[in-house]
């Protein structure tokens, strides 16, 4: 048997990180954890280190590193603790690493994920915000290094599974008419519009089908998540927003579809459990057990579909506009959304104000061409400042 692949899990303490470690632990002969990173839940990171014995762990501050290093020593482990963004990039690009799982949430994941791409690692991408912010530069880096980039986002993983191997020659060439990007519609799909003023963060995070981190849960409630995924799909599959149709499918059993010119529509189905796309991407092109229960179609009984309502979900419209504008617009959208979601989770703004804030920031920030990563971070910082100014004027 060949030696196990060494894996860095960026964002190991999060929802996707934990699902990944669950799949990895089922296949010790195939996969070994090389590095684990965490940000706030450091006691959990320690427990994960004890369980998976990585060579490296990464935490945000020197104080946290000292504490974790002491705790690891007491636990009898020789895991080395690194600090901050430098540490994240180091464990992403380390010569011993085969695969990097990018599961940090938000803009904080961009540099470490790019470091993995530039070092030619196999990259399994959950951190959609990184791609939304810097799509053109990110995909250039993928092509330059020749790395294998596989989507973990369940929809994109489904689309990837429904495309032929040579899809990179162009979707039109392989006969694709449209991508049908499915969405559950989240917890507020049927909430009376007048009640949306009063919904709480906990209600927004109570997703009907998926268990996820709080930021992506709010994004799913507002359907900004689908908007970010639309942009993500444009980059991953080299297509335009016009070729992507969003379809609300409340059961979350079909994870997305590809519509071909001959009228065939291919779908990928499964239980809503991230371990399926994670196992698919880890083992691709092989298949491994993920621990996910087989799909029971009889208990699901029916599959429903609806068109999304852009009055109910203005964030989806804003994201589509940003996708069509291109250049810096998606980075502005993403930054304003990150500030807005954090403010909503802190109860500084009401749920409908998420969209109002993003709309205003998009209107204030001109669309400019982006040819360097530093420009992306400048745009990101400017959009965050504009969003904070909006909060100072309108927030609590
Ligand atoms: P989460 O909040 O559960 O976990 C986030 C992880 O990122 C944690 O390990 C945290 O320690 C780390 N992190 C947070 N801020 C950081 C910072 N500033 N620097 C370094 N590390 C930081 O989130 P999640 O639900 O696991 O989602 C992670 C990513 O995967 C997001 O981009 C999300 O959109 C994407 N995604 C998640 C799911 C899902 O089912 N949860 C599905 C598809 C895509
Ligand atoms: Mg998704």
From TrEMBL:
<comment type="function">
    <text>Catalyzes the NADPH-dependent rearrangement and reduction of 1-deoxy-D-xylulose-5-phosphate (DXP) to 2-C-methyl-D-erythritol 4-phosphate (MEP).</text>
</comment>
<feature type="binding site">
    <location>
        <position position="220"/>
    </location>
    <ligand>
        <name>1-deoxy-D-xylulose 5-phosphate</name>
    </ligand>
</feature>
<feature type="binding site">
    <location>
        <position position="155"/>
    </location>
    <ligand>
        <name>Mn(2+)</name>
    </ligand>
</feature>
<feature type="binding site">
    <location>
        <position position="207"/>
    </location>
    <ligand>
        <name>1-deoxy-D-xylulose 5-phosphate</name>
    </ligand>
</feature>
<keyword id="KW-0560">Oxidoreductase</keyword>
<dbReference type="InterPro" id="IPR013512">
    <property type="entry name" value="DXP_reductoisomerase_N"/>
</dbReference>
<feature type="binding site">
    <location>
        <position position="13"/>
    </location>
    <ligand>
        <name>NADPH</name>
    </ligand>
</feature>
<keyword id="KW-0479">Metal-binding</keyword>
<protein>
    <recommendedName>
        <fullName>1-deoxy-D-xylulose 5-phosphate reductoisomerase</fullName>
        <ecNumber>1.1.1.267</ecNumber>
    </recommendedName>
</protein>
<feature type="binding site">
    <location>
        <position position="226"/>
    </location>
    <ligand>
        <name>1-deoxy-D-xylulose 5-phosphate</name>
    </ligand>
</feature>
<feature type="binding site">
    <location>
        <position position="155"/>
    </location>
    <ligand>
        <name>1-deoxy-D-xylulose 5-phosphate</name>
    </ligand>
</feature>
<feature type="binding site">
    <location>
        <position position="128"/>
    </location>
    <ligand>
        <name>1-deoxy-D-xylulose 5-phosphate</name>
    </ligand>
</feature>
<feature type="binding site">
    <location>
        <position position="127"/>
    </location>
    <ligand>
        <name>NADPH</name>
    </ligand>
</feature>
<feature type="binding site">
    <location>
        <position position="229"/>
    </location>
    <ligand>
        <name>Mn(2+)</name>
    </ligand>
</feature>
<feature type="binding site">
    <location>
        <position position="16"/>
    </location>
    <ligand>
        <name>NADPH</name>
    </ligand>
</feature>
<dbReference type="InterPro" id="IPR036291">
    <property type="entry name" value="NAD(P)-bd_dom_sf"/>
</dbReference>
<feature type="binding site">
    <location>
        <position position="153"/>
    </location>
    <ligand>
        <name>Mn(2+)</name>
    </ligand>
</feature>
<feature type="binding site">
    <location>
        <position position="213"/>
    </location>
    <ligand>
        <name>NADPH</name>
    </ligand>
</feature>
<feature type="binding site">
    <location>
        <position position="184"/>
    </location>
    <ligand>
        <name>1-deoxy-D-xylulose 5-phosphate</name>
    </ligand>
</feature>
<dbReference type="InterPro" id="IPR003821">
    <property type="entry name" value="DXP_reductoisomerase"/>
</dbReference>
<keyword id="KW-0414">Isoprene biosynthesis</keyword>
<dbReference type="Pfam" id="PF02670">
    <property type="entry name" value="DXP_reductoisom"/>
</dbReference>
<comment type="similarity">
    <text>Belongs to the DXR family.</text>
</comment>
<feature type="domain" description="1-deoxy-D-xylulose 5-phosphate reductoisomerase C-terminal">
    <location>
        <begin position="149"/>
        <end position="237"/>
    </location>
</feature>
<feature type="binding site">
    <location>
        <position position="129"/>
    </location>
    <ligand>
        <name>NADPH</name>
    </ligand>
</feature>
<feature type="binding site">
    <location>
        <position position="14"/>
    </location>
    <ligand>
        <name>NADPH</name>
    </ligand>
</feature>
<keyword id="KW-0521">NADP</keyword>
<feature type="domain" description="DXP reductoisomerase C-terminal">
    <location>
        <begin position="269"/>
        <end position="385"/>
    </location>
</feature>
<feature type="binding site">
    <location>
        <position position="229"/>
    </location>
    <ligand>
        <name>1-deoxy-D-xylulose 5-phosphate</name>
    </ligand>
</feature>
<dbReference type="GO" id="GO:0030604">
    <property type="term" value="F:1-deoxy-D-xylulose-5-phosphate reductoisomerase activity"/>
</dbReference>
<feature type="binding site">
    <location>
        <position position="154"/>
    </location>
    <ligand>
        <name>1-deoxy-D-xylulose 5-phosphate</name>
    </ligand>
</feature>
<feature type="domain" description="1-deoxy-D-xylulose 5-phosphate reductoisomerase N-terminal">
    <location>
        <begin position="7"/>
        <end position="135"/>
    </location>
</feature>
<keyword id="KW-0464">Manganese</keyword>
<dbReference type="InterPro" id="IPR013644">
    <property type="entry name" value="DXP_reductoisomerase_C"/>
</dbReference>
<dbReference type="Pfam" id="PF13288">
    <property type="entry name" value="DXPR_C"/>
</dbReference>
<keyword id="KW-0460">Magnesium</keyword>
<feature type="binding site">
    <location>
        <position position="225"/>
    </location>
    <ligand>
        <name>1-deoxy-D-xylulose 5-phosphate</name>
    </ligand>
</feature>
<feature type="binding site">
    <location>
        <position position="15"/>
    </location>
    <ligand>
        <name>NADPH</name>
    </ligand>
</feature>
<comment type="pathway">
    <text>Isoprenoid biosynthesis; isopentenyl diphosphate biosynthesis via DXP pathway; isopentenyl diphosphate from 1-deoxy-D-xylulose 5-phosphate: step 1/6.</text>
</comment>
<dbReference type="InterPro" id="IPR036169">
    <property type="entry name" value="DXPR_C_sf"/>
</dbReference>
<dbReference type="Pfam" id="PF08436">
    <property type="entry name" value="DXP_redisom_C"/>
</dbReference>
<dbReference type="InterPro" id="IPR026877">
    <property type="entry name" value="DXPR_C"/>
</dbReference>
């Amino acid at each position: 048997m060949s030696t196990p692949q060494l894996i860095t899990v960026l964002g190991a303490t999060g929802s996707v990180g934990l699902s990944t470690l669950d799949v990895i632990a089922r296949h010790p002969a195939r996969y070994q954890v090389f590095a684990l990173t965490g940000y706030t839940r450091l006691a959990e990171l320690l427990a994960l280190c004890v369980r998976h014995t990585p060579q490296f762990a990464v935490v945000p501050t020197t104080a946290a590193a000292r504490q974790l290093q002491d705790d690891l020593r007491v636990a009898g482990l020789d895991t080395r603790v690194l600090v901050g963004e430098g540490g994240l990039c180091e464990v992403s690009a380390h010569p011993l690493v085969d695969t990097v799982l990018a599961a940090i949430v938000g803009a904080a994941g961009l540099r470490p994920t790019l470091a993995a791409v530039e070092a030619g690692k196999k990259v399994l991408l959950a951190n959609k915000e990184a791609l939304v912010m810097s799509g053109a530069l990110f995909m250039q880096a993928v092509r330059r290094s020749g790395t294998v980039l596989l989507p973990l986002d369940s929809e994109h993983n489904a689309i990837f599974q429904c495309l032929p191997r040579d899809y990179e020659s162009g979707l039109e060439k392989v006969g694709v008419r449209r991508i049908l990007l499915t969405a559950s519609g989240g917890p507020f799909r049927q909430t009376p519009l007048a009640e949306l003023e009063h919904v709480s963060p906990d209600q927004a995070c109570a997703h009907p089908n998926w268990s996820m981190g709080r930021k992506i849960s709010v994004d799913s409630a507002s359907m900004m998540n689908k908007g970010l995924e639309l942009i993500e799909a444009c980059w991953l599959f080299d297509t335009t927003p016009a070729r992507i149709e969003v379809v609300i499918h409340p059961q979350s059993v079909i994870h997305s579809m590809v519509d071909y010119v001959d009228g065939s529509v291919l779908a990928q189905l499964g239980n809503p459990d991230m371990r399926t796309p994670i196992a698919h991407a880890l083992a691709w092109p092989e298949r491994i057990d993920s621990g996910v229960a087989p799909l029971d179609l009889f208990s699901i009984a029916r599959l429903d579909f609806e068109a999304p309502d852009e009055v109910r979900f203005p964030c989806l419209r804003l994201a589509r506009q940003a996708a069509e504008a291109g250049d810096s617009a998606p980075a502005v959208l993403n930054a304003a959304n990150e500030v807005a979601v954090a403010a909503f989770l802190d109860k500084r703004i009401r749920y409908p104000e998420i969209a109002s804030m993003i709309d205003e920031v998009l209107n204030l920030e001109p669309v400019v061409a982006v040819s360097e990563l530093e420009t992306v971070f400048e745009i990101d910082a400017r959009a965050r400042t504009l969003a904070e100014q909006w909060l100072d004027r309108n927030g609590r």
